[in-house]
Amino acid sequence: MLGRSMLAYLPVNLANIVVSFGTIVVLTRLLGSAEFGRYAIAMITVQFVHMGIFTWMEAAMARFQARAERENDVRSHLKTLYTLGAITGLIGGITLISVVFLLPLSPQMTTVLAVALGSTALQIIFNLGMEAHKAAHRVKRYSFTYSGQTLLSFTLGILLVLFTPLREVAPFVGILLGLICFIAIDLTFMLTRMRGGTYQADKTKIYFAYGMPICLSLLLTYALNSADVYIIAAILGEASAGQYNAGYNLANRSLEILFIWIAMAVTPMAVTAFEKQGSAQSIEIMKTYGASLLWIALPAATGIALVSQDAGFILGESVRAEAVTVMPLIAFAGMINGFMNYYVQRAFMLSGKTGAFAWAMVPPVLLNIGLNLWLIPQFGLMGAVYATVISYALGLIIAIVMARRSYPLPLPMRATLEIAAACAVMWLAVSALPIPEAWHGPISLLIKASVGAGVYLTVCWLINAANCRNIIRDVWQKFRRPKLAEVAE
Questions:
Q1: Does residue 261 belong to any structural domain of this protein?
Q2: What is the pLDDT of residues 300-309, one digit of tens each?
């Protein structure tokens, strides 16, 4: 079942891959390191703002859709959250843009931030629809709308970089235009779903009480992920911030796409099971989820560490040399962070103890900031990497301990050992490859990736790591079923 659900979300994952890698490949070539640094700072700022102001509504949409269906109250559920999103987006957007023009920033930074913050004020309307589709298991509609908006925004942004003087502002203008197009399509559909519903002030309080701690925890988590870029920019300059962000994104975003893909498929299943069948059924789903998450993500992190130097050709020359040095350790840091945010955090979500996750993030965030201020002056960009790894490890330990106090989160210890053993064999096999120096780059990357994947899957199949044979059979049957239907006809 997990394999089939993951396949249903494959178009979204492919769109994320195209945009994530396309952004890194294209923008690091078209923009200078300082311009890319300003783009990165603006993108991180937008994420901080969106999480702090808007995400509580998105979290409430995802968490309470199944309960609204059970109580036959979906129309009012949607009407309440869309009303809140429209009001907050309008007031928040105007306020944020006004504040930016009052800050003592350079004209370039002011312009890119103003456009970026305008886009995030509109993003909330789009995101509410996406969360509603996922929670209601409207997978095809979600996949089409999300993938379409993502690809259109990316394409428009790149065209604007190429053919206008907007430079680092162009990607955010592209996002704005893509959102306008697809909100016009999706909102028409959603308005029919909320027709006859009423705004419910009492539900607003429930949604806020549930979602705001998630906002705080996301802010702290994102600070743990990205505050180092601000510190690097302050200590080493915007160009260094761009170089670090390019390497970080190439390694971490590759893993995050996998985490989001699997979480996208499983989270609605776990919430629906919890609401309609009880905690026991959700625990069974989480057990399979945790093992599957590690089975896919840990070898990906190992592979990124193995091919980091060969993958440097993906990046523009202005950021390449420094970016590839941070990638190996960032890959494993991303693995730790992803498991914490996309697995352990689900225990807080299901138990409703979302505030506890926020408290769990406070110590690692403080440690991360302190380590960055201490290590970056001594070790440059690698100082930020060391701070990231240590802080993520502390955050994962604290989150697991606190999560298990309110929800019996299963820990896939046996699966972890099996997967780690398979990754170790893969590492030895790839490291032993006699690849000539002249082949380093795309050819070496393809050889290492092919051999590594083959060795890993073979070892996993032989020892049935994380019960992977069921996942593989699930996927195989999904592809085979249409062929069987043709034969039957």
A1: no
A2: 999 999 998 8
398 belongs to a structural domain: no
3-state secondary structure (DSSP) of residue 32: coil
Q: Which residues lie closer than 8 Å to 161 by C-beta, 6 or more apart?
A: 26, 27, 30, 31, 167, 170, 171
d(CA 208, CA 89): 16
Q: Answer whether residue 241 is part of any domain.
A: no
**Is 124 part of any domain?**
yes
Domain of residue 43 covers: 31-199
Residue 104 to residue 160: CA distance in whole angstroms? 27
Two tokens, residue 190: 């959603």
The single-letter DSSP state of residue 164 is S
Helices (H), 54-138: 55-70, 74-102, 107-135
- Decide: helix, strand or coil at residue 380: coil
| Structure confidence by residue, pLDDT tens digits, 46-93 | 988 998 899 999 989 988 888 888 888 889 999 999 999 999 999 999
Compute the CA torsion angle 395, 398, 401, 402 (nearest 10 deg).
-100
Tokens of 448: 């290492």
Q: DSSP class of residue 196? A: T
Residue 311 φ then ψ, to 5° = -80, 0
Torsion angle, alpha carbons of 75, 80, 81, 85, to 10: 130
Q: State the pTM of this model.
A: 0.71
Cβ-proximal residues to 489 (8 Å cutoff; 6+ apart), any chain: none
The total number of structural domains in the chain stands at 1
The one-letter amino acid at 353: K
- Residue 284 pLDDT more than 90? no
- The residues, any chain, with a CB within 8 Å of residue 317's CB and separated by 6 or more, are none
Which of 84, 62, 67, 85 shows the shortest CA–CA distance to 133? 62
> What would the pLDDT profile of 345-365 be if each residue is shown by its tens digit?
888 878 878 778 888 889 999
Dist CA 138 CA 116 (whole Å): 29
**Do 251 and 330 contact (CB within 8 A), yes or no?**
yes
Mean pLDDT of 156-163: 94
Decide if 132 contacts 190 (C-beta within 8 A): yes
Is 49:120 a contact under the CB 8 Å cutoff?
Answer: yes
Q: Name the DSSP letter for residue 103.
A: S
